[in-house]
Amino acid sequence: TEITEKLEEAIMIWIKQIRQVLVESEQIRREAGDLGPSAELEHWKTRMSSFNSLLDEIRSSRVKKIINVLQAARSKTLKQWKELDGNVTIAANEAKDNVRYLHTLDKFFGPLARASPVTMMEHVPSLMNTVCMIYCTSPYYNTSERMTSLLLKITNQMINTCKTYLCEG
Fold it and tell me: Cα separations (Å) of 7 from 70, 86, 121, 127, 131?
């Protein structure tokens, strides 16, 4: 029972830490007002990397051994642990899925950033069709909050490109 108590203490510390990571990942991001759409892709790549690392740790043999001992001892902490494991898995899947969908926009980021306003406008219909496809098919990215953030960043990039064009001309 002493070993079980020590393992339960460790699990409770991990649960607290993982909950904190999950809470922080859901907080509203504070970003510069002129970020372009590539920042959105980078955000989700970073988040995917973080949650995949966390999943790797949760699924490591060391943690599995502790979980097995606690299962044998019928520990009450396992219910919370399993719930958190599921939440981390969902967050990792969301990040991976969002990276996959946002990656389809990557081909537009260069022309959006470096083209003249006239050339840039040639890419807008295809870009908007791709954004629409993401909205219609993504199980995670199809919220008004996520779409607003993406469209704001696309607009920022278009404005920045036009400013640069005007200053150079």
Answer: 7, 20, 60, 52, 47
From first to last of its 169 residues, the chain has per-residue pLDDT tens of 888 899 999 999 999 999 999 998 887 777 777 888 999 999 999 999 999 999 999 999 999 999 999 999 999 999 999 999 999 999 999 999 999 999 999 999 988 888 899 999 999 999 999 999 999 999 999 999 899 999 999 999 999 999 999 998 6
> What amino acid is encoded at 6 in this protein?
K
The helix (H) or strand (E) run that includes residue 132 is helix 117-137
Pairwise CA distance, residues 112 & 37, whole Å? 9
Report how far residue 116's alpha carbon sits from residue 23's, in angstroms, rounded to the nearest whole number.
41
Q: What gap in Å lies between CA 77 and CA 6, rounded to an integer?
A: 12
- Is 0.85 surpassed by the pTM of this model? yes
